[in-house]
Each structure stands twice: as C-alpha cells, then as structure tokens.
Structure to design on (450 residues):
C-alpha cells in the first residue's frame, strides 16, 4: 500500500470484510484471532475453552484450570496486500476461590504508506498500525454457569499529522469493555450456550470529533453441541450469530417534505442546515450507544425516512428524488431503472404529487422507507457454523462456513489441531472466490499450558 490516503481506503475495505456494516470505528477489534476458530468458520463464543476465550467470550475462562499462553500470526488479507500482518497474544491463569485472570494483546500492521502533499508531491513515508490491550476476569456462578468481563484500551495510528489544512493527528486512543456469559448443559446435556457483548464504549474520533464513529459494539450468541463425547472420540457442532449493535442512518428525509435539512435545531428556516422543521437531524448520523443497543435492531426496517443517496441540489439543499423513469428507454429490457433511462422532472418541486421518485442514477429515493422490511435486518446478521472432531486429546480436524449476506462474504474454512505434552499447534485456512481478499488466508496458532 503506497499512496497517501490509501490507509483510509484500506480501513474502509477492512470494515466491509470484517463486517457488512462499515459505519463503526475500530473495526480491527472484530478480526477473529486463533487458527482453531479460523478453521471452524469463526464460530467460538460457546466453545471458548482456551486462552483465546479472553477474546471470544471471557466467561469461558471461568471453567478452566491452570495457566496457558497462546499466540497467533497471520498475513492478513493476502489477496489485498502483502504487508498486512495481524498478531495476537493471550494469557490466562486460574486462582482457586477467586476466579480466572486473563487478557490479550492485538497488533495489526497496515504497512508503509507514502505521504503526499495536496498537489501530489511526495513528502516521505509513514507507517500505520492498530493495537489493543484487554484484561479479563471470569468466575463461576454455579457448576454450569459462568460470567466474564473485559476492560480494554485501543490505539489506532493511521498518520501522524492531518492532510492539507487539517489540524491534529490521525491517531485515536479509546477504551471499552465486554460482558460474557456461558452455561453448560443448557436445555440438553452436552449443549452449551454462550453470549458475548463486546466493544461497549464511547465513540472513536480522530482529527474531527464531529465525525466520530461508534465503537463496533457486537452481540454474539452461540451454541455448542457435543454429538459424540467419549474418551477417544469427540464431535462437536457449533453455531454463532453476530449482530453489530450500531444504528446508522444515511441522509434521510424524515418529514417527507422532499428536502434534507433546511432548518436549525429549533426548527427555524436555515438553508443548508442539517435539521427539519421538527428539529430532527436529517443528515447522515449514528445513534449513541445507549440508544443503538435498541434501535440497531430496527434501524434498517421500522425506523428511518426516505433515503437521499445523492445530492441533486439546484434548490440549495439536498433534494429527494426529482427524476422519473422512462420505461420506453429500457433498451436492455432488464425492467429496472438505469441512469441512461432517467428524465428530470420539469415544472414541479419536491413534495408535489408528480415529483420524480428516483435520483439521476435510477435509485429510488421517494417512498424508500415504505420498501424496508424485517428481511433487511435479518440480512445484516452474520452466521458462523463449524464442526470439530477430536481423536483422543491429541489430534483434531475442523471445518466451517462464514456467511455474511450484506458483506457478500461466504467462505468455507478448514483446519487441524495437534496437542502434545502441554503444547498445541493449530492451523486454519479460509477458502473463497478467486480474487477475494480473504481467499487463501492462513492462520497459525501456538498454545502452551503450564
């Protein structure tokens, strides 16, 4: 990656690859550690029975004895760049009558960039990276139930100084915490339930606090069922579902007057301002975390107004619609409005009955809120499925599937594991479409129990 600004573009790509929704900050916190998890479709929240539990579900640490050190190295997204590296180091130790202490360190290297001026003059190079430190505590509530929590601090170093007239540095230091729960023999013998609410904290900001993004608060719920559980043969099927608890809205006409904004917070006329007459913000924004925990379940369905996907603004403000679809121009016969089939509305203004419902690119804007359904919310869930077979305590074979419909990610995964004399080695491989950045991602992990 060798261009100024490429690092920001890279972060956007990482956002889309880690999760479908890219409106959150510190997305690197969602990159899955552990080759074992990597081989099982990243389904792990109800497994979490090693040092990696400090990431996947800190409640899992409460069931573990002794001490363990774990580490992972991976050339991240080999199909995208050759200088991206992800490192993970975790530790746990159990203290009788007190509980288990653990934690982990994450380091993501984004490679070297070339700094350029506004005129394209090269000004040298800089490196970009992200890192996080998390401390964990877990204890048993009963023989089959455990809770856990993490306290974390993260640091993102994109660039030392802003570009052009921007003031400040492209760095951010943030804090957050996770809450985990695990219950064994849930409903059935050998069925484990796991839940983890991660990355709860204030918004992430760099140079401009007004453009701060919410942390990638994520809810993971999983089950782990031991189909076979004998001395020499163990077979488990696991399934996780992830929901990013970030409620975001693009430019939206909430009051259906055909414009985005045009008023101040008090509802007074203010051309170019961001609010409607009722004082509700209409430009792109996100809900604060204490609202998003609830509104994120319905922000793409029940909530929202008409979406403004482009600025067509000869009226001084962002305008909803204003173009109609001329079906007679549908030369390709696809039955869908295309940009070369649009005609601008003449003699009308936003809000009139004959005002066009499309923008100039053929995207529907007027009435778009009526087209949203529960399906839009369900499509944003990420599904992780895995299977793991152990022969004795020494050899494991794994397979899984990672599916994110909105993010257009559907990757099979495979892996193996070896254990001997307190040492463990795991390998995970992600398969995918040729050219996809996640394709051929290989994870290597090492565990040491003592």
């Amino acid at each position: 990656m060798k261009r100024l600004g490429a690092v920001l573009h890279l972060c956007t790509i990482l956002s889309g690859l880690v999760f479908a929704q890219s409106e959150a900050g510190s997305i690197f916190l969602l990159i899955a550690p552990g080759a074992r998890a990597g081989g099982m479709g990243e389904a792990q929240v109800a497994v979490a029975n090693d040092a990696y539990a400090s990431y996947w579900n800190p409640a899992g640490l409460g069931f573990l004895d002794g001490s363990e050190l774990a580490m992972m190295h991976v050339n991240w997204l080999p199909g995208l760049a050759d200088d991206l590296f992800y490192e993970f180091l975790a530790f746990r130790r159990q203290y009788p009558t007190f509980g288990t202490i653990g934690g982990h360190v994450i380091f993501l290297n984004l490679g070297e960039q070339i700094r350029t001026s506004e005129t394209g003059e090269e000004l040298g190079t800089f490196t970009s990276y992200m890192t996080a430190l998390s401390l964990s505590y877990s204890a048993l509530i009963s023989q089959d139930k455990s809770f856990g929590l993490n306290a974390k601090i993260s640091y993102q170093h994109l660039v030392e100084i802003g570009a052009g007239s921007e003031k400040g540095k492209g760095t951010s230091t943030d804090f957050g915490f996770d809450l985990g729960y695990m219950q064994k023999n849930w409903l059935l013998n050998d069925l484990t339930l796991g839940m983890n609410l991660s990355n709860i904290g204030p918004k992430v900001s760099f140079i401009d606090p007004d453009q701060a993004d919410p942390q990638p608060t994520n809810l993971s719920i999983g089950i782990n069922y031991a189909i076979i559980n004998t001395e020499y043969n163990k077979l488990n099927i696991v399934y996780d579902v992830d929901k990013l608890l970030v409620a975001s809205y693009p430019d939206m006409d909430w009051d259906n007057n055909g414009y985005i904004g045009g008023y101040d917070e008090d509802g007074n006329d203010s051309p170019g301002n961001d609010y409607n007459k009722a004082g509700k913000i209409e430009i792109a924004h996100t809900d604060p975390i204490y609202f998003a925990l609830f509104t994120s379940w319905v922000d793409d369905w029940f909530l929202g107004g008409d979406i403004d996907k482009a600025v067509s603004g000869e009226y001084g403000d962002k305008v909803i619609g204003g173009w109609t679809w001329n079906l007679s121009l549908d030369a390709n016969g696809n039955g869908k409005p295309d940009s070369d089939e649009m005609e601008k509305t003449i003699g009308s203004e936003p809000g009139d009955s004959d005002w066009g419902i499309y923008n100039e690119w053929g995207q529907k804007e007027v009435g778009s809120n009526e087209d949203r359904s529960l399906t839009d919310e369900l499509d944003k869930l990420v599904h992780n499925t895995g299977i793991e077979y152990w022969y004795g305590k020494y050899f494991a074979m794994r397979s899984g599937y990672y599916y994110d419909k909105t993010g257009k990610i559907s990757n099979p995964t495979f892996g193996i594991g070896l254990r001997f004399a307190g040492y463990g080695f795991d390998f995970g491989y992600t398969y995918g479409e040729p050219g996809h950045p996640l394709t051929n991602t290989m994870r290597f992990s090492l565990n040491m129990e003592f």
In short: The CA atoms of residues 66 and 94 lie 5 Å apart. The two ends are 41 Å apart (CA to CA).
